[in-house]
Amino acid sequence: MKQKQAIFQSHHLNKEANPHYNDYATAVQKVKNILQEQTGLHFKLYQSDMEMDQVFEAAEQMIMQNDSDIVHICSIYDNVSVATFRYTVVENYTVQPSIENNIFYFPKFDVALVKMPIYQSHEDFEENFLFASDDQSLLKFLNYLLEKQRQAMLKGISVFTDTDDGLIKTREKITQQIHREDVLLEENIKTDIFRSIDEFFLKSGAFFREYDIPYKRGILLYGSPGNGKTTLVKSIAGSVAAPTVYWQITENTSSYSIQEVFSTVTKMAPMVLVIEDIESMPDYARSAFLNALDGATSKEGIFLIGTTNYPEKIDPALINRAGRFDRAYEIKQPNDDLRKSYLHNKGLEKFLDMNQMELLVKKTKGLSISQLNEVYMSIALQWHYDQEIQIEKIVDDLLENQRKTKKQDWDLDEENIGRVGF
């Protein structure tokens, strides 16, 4: 046994077998020496393939927010950048230590993080290193960081987008709360959806336990664009005390990004996962997606909302099997009552009398909520400049513009064809 162990160690540590090991190990040892000098503790190095990126993402958010729980000890390499600057709407430009090439320490847990450049003759790369004084300290830190992430996610909507560079994660603040009464839907659909939401979140899943129902829920919202699917989602996000993740499916969605998304949201449960444009899931990733939906624990505590403008393009396997999506709701174009309610809420009575309002409701039949908003904008502009409102012309112009845009039937002067430019 000792001979086998010696061979194993020799194979991995011998400089001839691994000519660049010393370059790598020297940098790591230097970091451990600095940590010992600063804290008086010995540190062990830990690794996890799936978890490490999420740990460093959370730490970077804390650095950006100047969180007092994380301390900058020092930089590593002298001639490598150690700070980053970024523009924010609130503070304009700010300068902060970058997550790269710096040692960050959490004194409450005796845990340190380092995203360190590794320089070797054949390649340069960055690697994430997680140091802790012992296993228990590490576990306490990871649970703390998980709760920190959850609290941060409650302050807005986390947006995940699949790109050529991988899964990009951003956070958007809810700048304007959309109240439930402002959501324009048929009353029976609206009641059904919000009852499901309330039983899932506001009572901590007691309904599901009482009736022995699996603690997960999936609904699909479908319908033509501009009729309130996104508004409904924003209202849900702002009215529940749970994280909301908004996942944008693209042609870059892969089995890896699917695994990463479900790994993240499972740890954040109970929470809302919104999957936008679900019909856009690439064929090569559908099997991985269906497996994630069917996983024994992948949806536990998750309220899943899928949205699509093209329900006919959805893989039938998504909606024809129990446990994936429990209900599908059509978000229709607003009827007369909903259009009248919307136009009334926009305050059009200050421009129009009762007869004009009735005419406007009649003329806008077939328009979406977003198109009604454009009608309001046109009316306000015409009133502002001309002190008059031509309802029929405004609506007819909008309909004609919509027709041309949809069919790309543009009016072009034949003399100028081929000369369009800036």
From TrEMBL:
Residues 215-335 form the AAA+ ATPase domain. Belongs to the AAA ATPase family. BCS1 subfamily. Gene3D superfamilies: P-loop containing nucleotide triphosphate hydrolases (3.40.50.300). This is ATP-binding protein. Pfam families: AAA (PF00004). One of its GO terms (molecular function) is ATP binding. InterPro entries: AAA+_ATPase, ATPase_AAA_core, ATPase_AAA_CS, Mitochondrial_chaperone_BCS1, P-loop_NTPase.
